[in-house]
Amino acid sequence: MKIIGIIPVRMKSSRLPGKAMKKINNMPNMSYCRFENTTIDIDDCLAAIQDSHEECADLSRREVQALQRLLEQAEEIVDLSHDIEQIIEKYN
Question: What does the pLDDT look like over 35-59, one tens digit per residue?
């Protein structure tokens, strides 16, 4: 596993202590946020690509590399579609 970042969380919150470790719909809270937030970000990227090539006309080198990685990840997701469907079915 490759660690790409650390997300600080407050385990001693006064309103909901241990919130980051609580389960929502049988999933750990951080996992729930990860998938939900990622889909929102992907929707934003898709809109930028679909709406106008003008939005993508002046990309930095790093943005082009990120767009390439996004395409690679999309291909990986398609390859994992059977596994993803099994996970979804487990929660339905």
Answer: 888 888 899 988 888 876 776 778 8
Long-range CB contacts (within 8 A, 24+) of 42-46: 42/70, 45/70
What's the 3-state SS for the chain?
Answer: CCCCCCCCCCCCCCCCCCHHHCEECCEEHHHHHHHHHHHHHHHHHHHHHHHCHHHHCCCCHHHHHHHHHHHHHHHHHHHCHHHHHHHHHHHC
Residues near 10 by beta carbon (within 8 Å), at least 6 away in sequence: 19, 20
pTM reported for the whole predicted model: 0.59
CA separation for the pair 3, 38 (Å, rounded): 17
23 Cβ contact list (under 8 Å, min separation 6) = 29
Is the Cβ–Cβ distance between 28 and 21 less than 8 Å?
yes
Please, how many CA atoms are within 13 Å of residue 30, restricted to the half-sphere of its CB? 9
